[in-house]
Amino acid sequence: MKSSTIFLLVLLSGIILAAGCTVPVSPGATPQKTTLSANPAAAAVVTPAPSPLPSATTTFWPSAARVGEITTVPTTRVASDNPYLENLNIRKRTFVNPLPDCLMQKAFPSVARNPEYGIQQVVPKLTAISEDDYETFLRKYTEGEAENTQLKTPAVCQNTGNEPTWNFIEVRAILVPTNFNPSFYTITENVMSDGKIVAEFKTDKWLVIDEQVILTVYIPIHADEVDLVDNVEMTYTRE
User: Residue 52: inside a domain, yes or no?
Assistant: First the structure.
């Protein structure tokens, strides 16, 4: 009896020990497996994903200049302070029919009576008259006070020859000053013939930035020399 009791106690202890070392696994579940690399050092290396490169169209403008750095603001104006020539118009032959010499001698004696006046002289000589003087001429010597209307022929010019005949060239320039500080400028209109300057007309003007300036002059010229004028070039001198 005693032996049987001892055998049952030993058997019961074995069953209890076996039950404590066994972990139940849910039906259908797969136990996790841990796989170690054969090279432990390689397993420790982690390669980060490369950062995306900036777009080629991306621009960067700092909000303020750093020490030793110059920030240049883009501008639509040229660096020079010369006025911007917005328009230059040269109108040859303001009169369709040439003007008679006698009438021009009465209207502009210092021009028409000067034997050394003209482009083809040894020393070319031309004169420019103002827009006011030209309009005065129109009022005094034309019936309609305008170009290409009937001329008012002075009495002393009745029954006289017309030769040499005359005409006018109108030069009109529109300038837009670009100088930051208001300044006096000498504006020169250079009359060109065969690549050479044959006359220079200078005008002194007080220029203020963006305040448009219009210059208009009229050049009395022999009718047969009108087409000798090729162009007018503008130059500027700041005082």
Answer: no
